[in-house]
Design a protein that fits this description.
Elements (H helix, E strand, L loop, with lengths): L2 E8 L9 E7 L5 E10 L4 H21 L11 H23 L9 E2 L1 E7 L2 E7 L3 E6 L2 E4 L6 H7 L30 E6 L5 E5 L1 H6 L5 H6 L4 H14 L6 E8 L1
Antiparallel strand pairs: 1-11, 2-3, 3-4, 3-5, 5-6, 6-9, 7-8, 7-10, 10-11
Helix pairs in contact: 1-2
Length: about 250
């Protein structure tokens, strides 16, 4: 089994720095893969540091597992897989908190994080913040993550409607992010990937600039993951993306 993976991050049309980070790695036997997107916050320098620290912590934590044969994970329950990914999130959170110790200029830094660990045909997703993971099967697009935002809470309790969201002045306020608390619980989802299915991880720079109902038509025109991420980011820039835009895309071959 093999995967086609590509990623791209762009500063966007307004920002003066890119605080997003994308990363991906294949396992040694090609039967597992790790993908992530982190969107930093907390000032010009702080956001860049926070997202970088999160990425480094996740890759360091998962590196030994990516060297193990896929058979090592056969039969493990979803709860065990969730614990493994939660450990990544906890270590990333710890790294950010330690990184800002003693530096007042970094006291507000933090980051979102979405991580997907794919083992053969199983996708395991951990998530904190408003970066997202989507599962594309044919033309069916499913968002596997729920935004940790004030606006999402209000949508869930019926205080506002989807039509109200663009007019909410605090629509980007997070209720959860790495580096903001001594302990962070990530959400978890699992999906089963058929041949040709895709997992797409992105920062809110993509979702805010390019509605997700436009993605299937755009992706249908792309022959591989590299052209697909370029098309998504390019369309976001054409729409004058006001934030950094980051995408990592895996296709199961």
């Amino acid at each position: 089994m093999h995967y086609d993976i590509s990623g791209l991050s762009d500063i966007g049309t307004v920002r003066s720095s890119n605080q997003d980070v994308v990363a991906w790695q294949l396992g040694h036997d090609g039967h597992q893969a790790l993908l992530l997107v982190a969107d930093g916050m907390g000032g010009y320098h702080g956001g860049e540091i926070a997202s970088q620290l999160a990425m480094e912590a996740v890759l360091e934590t998962m590196a030994p597992r990516l060297q193990e044969p896929t058979s090592s994970y056969s039969g493990l329950s979803d709860s065990v897989m969730r614990e493994i990914l939660q450990d990544c999130v906890t270590r990333a959170n710890d790294h950010i908190i330690a990184g800002r110790a003693g530096d007042a200029s970094l006291d507000k830094m933090g980051t979102t994080l979405v991580v997907a660990w794919v083992i053969e045909d199983r996708g395991h997703v951990a998530h904190v913040g408003d970066s997202r993971c989507y599962w594309l099967s044919g033309r069916r697009l499913t968002c596997l993550t729920r935004d940790d935002t004030v606006v999402q809470d209000m949508l869930d309790d019926g205080s506002i409607t989807v039509a109200d969201v663009p007019h909410m002045p605090f629509r980007n306020v997070l209720t959860k992010a790495l580096g903001t608390s001594s302990s962070i619980d990530a959400s978890y989802q699992r999906c089963d990937l058929g041949v040709g299915d895709r997992l797409l991880l992105c920062s809110d720079g993509l979702t805010n600039a390019l509605p997700d109902d436009l993605w299937p038509d755009l992706l249908d025109k792309c022959g591989d993951s590299q052209s697909a991420v370029e098309a998504l980011v390019g369309a976001s820039l054409d729409n004058r993306a006001s934030d950094n835009v980051s995408v990592v895309l895996l296709t199961r071959l």
